[in-house]
Task: inverse folding
């Protein structure tokens, strides 16, 4: 018996582009990581696409909106970017609102933390 596979469309969020369709054995939840063709991605959103067949809506495929995993920029607190900057999002997915793609080194918007976060 073959394992149940789901047709999954992979969308890269930034820059916005389709990475194509793959068959996955399960449907990753937002926040989880998975690998496609040797590249690690983090799932940001998951959308189910339905199609009307024989008077019933059937799951046709799943669309995953992903971003590449940034392992080299993760600091000791588990977040991305410079934790000494006031704009740091303290998240493993997003550096900051002003310069989300980084890099943090020599950022023109760097503002030192004031007080305890």
Result:
């Amino acid at each position: 018996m073959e394992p149940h596979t789901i047709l999954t469309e992979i969308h890269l969020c930034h820059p916005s582009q389709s990475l194509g369709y793959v068959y996955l054995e399960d449907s990753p939840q937002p926040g989880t990581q998975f690998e496609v063709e040797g590249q690690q991605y983090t799932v940001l959103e998951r959308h189910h696409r339905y199609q009307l067949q024989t008077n019933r809506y059937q799951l046709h495929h799943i669309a995953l909106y992903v971003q590449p995993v940034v392992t080299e920029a993760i600091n000791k607190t588990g977040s991305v970017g410079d934790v000494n900057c006031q704009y740091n999002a303290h998240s493993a997915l997003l550096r900051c609102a002003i310069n989300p793609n980084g890099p943090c080194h020599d950022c023109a918007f760097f503002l030192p933390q004031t007080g305890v976060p």
